[in-house]
Design a protein that fits this description.
Blueprint (H helix, E strand, L loop, with lengths): L7 E4 L13 H13 L4 E2 L13 H15 L6 E3 L5 H14 L3 E4 L9 H12 L6 E5 L1 H4 L5 H7 L5 E6 L4 H11 L4 E4 L5 H6 L4 E4 L6 H12 L3 H21 L1 H11 L16 H17 L1
Parallel strand pairs: 1-2, 1-8, 3-4, 4-5, 5-6, 6-7, 7-8
């Protein structure tokens, strides 16, 4: 398999803002530290949970640098560097590599629908400018682009594209990727409600915001899978699946910040146009979290 440092639970930190919608770096470091000490196997700043598209260039670089300085090499770091243009994606990929990131994640963001050739050239252009590994991120729900398994195979011909994050929610596609790719690349689950099925399909890891709220259950599920204890894994999965569905349906930044507040942890504010969960949604989340913790 192409060399990769990433396996297990890859935790996605939120980006907190203060009351004036400025990035709160001290609070970010505190929230990031919670993920590291919880036992997460890696961290991935500037993903959907970290509201990467809502940040300017300087803020993205500040988050990257804050992550490197806080983690201090304790776990691998996967930095999101996606942008609408190839030039800006290269810029952030090079900045992440220079700061000390272990790998970068790229989703082909677009306004106009991109062709397969355009997507391949986009990844190839970025890869030619950096030496660290790249994770190709497929999430049509947010990017508006669905990279087919055939396209992903083309992208993986680029030497330092070593990983795929699959977030379509199609478990059959995961089985296909495992069969077609074999040991040539690692694939990762990006669909929270499919965590159990994805590991069964051969996923190397689970990219998730859930460790912000229930790290012990996420890690226990992974450990049960590694021990081939499917009965325990199923129990752990069903204990957390309602929460996994909720945070996806309501939007990761909104749901995670609300969940942290319910648990007595300061999660900061959102940046407009994002708005907090409603009181009804917060009450529902509180009930789900209570059930999650009592079910064990």
């Amino acid at each position: 398999m192409k060399n990769t440092l990433f396996k297990g639970i890859i935790a996605y930190p939120i980006t907190p803002f203060d009351e004036n919608e400025k990035v709160d770096l001290p609070l970010y470091k505190q929230l990031l530290e919670r993920l590291v000490v919880s036992g997460s196997h890696a961290v991935a700043p500037l993903g959907s949970t970290g509201v990467m598209p809502y940040l300017n260039d300087e803020e993205k670089e500040a988050i990257t640098e804050a992550t490197i300085s806080q983690v201090k090499g304790r776990v691998p770091i996967l930095v999101g560097v996606s942008n609408l243009t190839t030039e800006r994606t290269i810029y952030h990929a090079k900045a992440a590599e220079k700061a000390g990131a272990d790998a970068v994640m790229i989703i082909p963001m677009s306004y106009w629908k991109l062709s397969d050739d355009e997507i391949v050239k986009h990844y190839d252009a970025v890869a030619s400018q950096i030496a660290i590994p790249i994770m190709a991120y497929n999430n049509p729900a947010t990017a508006g682009v669905d990279m087919s398994p055939a396209l992903l195979k083309r992208i993986l011909e680029i030497p330092n594209v070593t990983m795929i994050k699959e977030s379509t929610g199609d478990v059959q596609r995961m089985h296909y990727l495992k069969k077609e790719l074999g040991d040539n690349a690692a694939f990762y689950n990006g669909s929270n409600p499919l965590a159990m099925a994805a590991f069964a399909a051969g996923a190397s890891g689970w990219c998730t915001a859930a460790p912000n709220l229930i790290p012990e259950l996420n890690i226990a599920l992974y450990n049960a899978i590694q021990k081939n204890d499917l009965q325990e894994a199923q129990k752990l999965f069903y204990q957390q699946v309602n929460l996994l569905r909720f945070i996806v349906e309501k939007g990761l930044p909104r749901a995670i910040k609300a969940g942290l507040h319910i648990q007595g942890v300061e999660g900061g504010h959102l940046r407009k146009p994002l708005q907090p969960l409603t009181e009804t949604e917060i009450s529902e989340l509180s009930s789900i979290l209570q059930l999650v913790h009592t079910a064990g």
